[in-house]
Amino acid sequence: MLYDRRKAQRVKVNLPARWEGESGSRPATVTSISFKGCFLLSAGSVQPRELIRLEIDLPGEEPLYAWAEVVDQAEDIGFAVQFTLVEQDQARLAAFILRCG
Fold first, then answer.
1. Chain-centre distance of CA 80, in angstroms?
2. Which end of the chain is least crowded, N or C, by CB within 10 Å?
3. pLDDT for the residue numbered 4
């Protein structure tokens, strides 16, 4: 399902992920993703503007690795991040989102 939010089209997904930040490394589930970022359901604490290392398992592909900045938090539920991706990974993410949309 495709919907528009925060100027970037987002797709609802259920993707396993792992993130690493100041508080350590934690598993997560990506529940929505766009060309610019995603929302992670995850335990663990993050700080606004914290940079995390993110690994997202894309079905049938190599994992997507990214640096991401925390841009929003939902207390005890998870947080939203904005990606910093290299050009090759931007193309992979765009192709994945188009397939899901």
1. 7
2. N
3. 40
Identify residue 41 by its one-letter amino acid code: L
Report which of residues 88 and 15 the model is more confident about.
Answer: 15
Beta strands in 22-85 (DSSP E): 24-34, 37-41, 51-56, 64-74, 78-84
Nearest Cα to Cα of residue 98 among 20, 28, 5, 9: 9
CB 56 within 8 A of CB 15: yes
Paired tokens of 2: 């495709």
Residue 62: Cβ within 10 Å count: 9
- Angstrom distance (rounded) from CA 41 to CA 38: 10
**Amino acid identity at 43:** A
The CATH architecture that domain 2-100 belongs to is Beta Barrel (2.40)
pTM confidence score: 0.88
32-91: pLDDT as tens digits: 999 999 999 998 889 999 999 999 999 999 999 999 999 999 888 999 999 988 888 899
